[in-house]
Design goal:
Helix content: 25-40%
Number of helices: 6
Strand order of the largest sheet: 1-2-3-4-5-6
CATH architecture: 3-Layer(aba) Sandwich
Distance between the termini: 26 Å
Number of domains: 1
Mean pLDDT: 84
Structural class: alpha+beta
Low-confidence stretches: none
CATH class: Alpha Beta
Largest sheet: 6 strands, antiparallel
């Protein structure tokens, strides 16, 4: 999807207020469908095993959204995107009805996601290692290529 931060914010606001889908459909869409247990989203090695980080936050996927079901902020849903020269990430916390939208025009944009979310929202619950959004994980994935 190609979008602007403004349009994505309007979309997420409409999603929170049930103007896009009914409350029932929204609950179904954000209900955990597939639990995630892996150490990384795209395993760097086939034998890397399960990750504690994903279990701690109740990482799962609903219908089209990544979900964090056990956080100190309450349930959250997220979406990310990758393209040539662009990296994106958005996360919404349901209890506070707050979202952060990060759109970058860089292939290395994911390196700023964690520090920005931690500084601005106090978000220490997003599973950065699972996302492979840490410098170490990115370096390891480059070695595998």
């Amino acid at each position: 999807m190609t979008t602007s931060a403004e349009d994505l914010a309007r979309f997420e606001s409409a999603l929170f207020s049930n103007r896009i889908v009914s409350a029932k459909t929204r609950r179904q869409m954000l209900h955990p469908f597939y639990k995630i247990r892996s150490l990384h989203q795209f395993p760097l090695r086939p034998d890397e095993g399960e990750g504690r980080e994903s279990a701690a936050v109740g990482l799962s996927y609903g219908e089209g959204w990544g979900l964090l079901t056990h956080t100190r902020f309450g349930p959250a849903f997220f979406k990310k995107g990758h393209g040539d020269g662009a990296q994106t990430y958005t996360i919404c916390f349901e209890q506070s009805r707050s979202c952060m939208i990060l759109l970058t025009n860089s292939d290395n944009g994911e390196l700023v996601f964690g520090p920005l979310l931690e500084k601005i929202l106090g978000d220490t619950v997003t599973p950065w290692e699972w996302e492979c959004y840490t410098a170490f994980c990115i370096a390891e994935s480059w070695k595998q290529q």
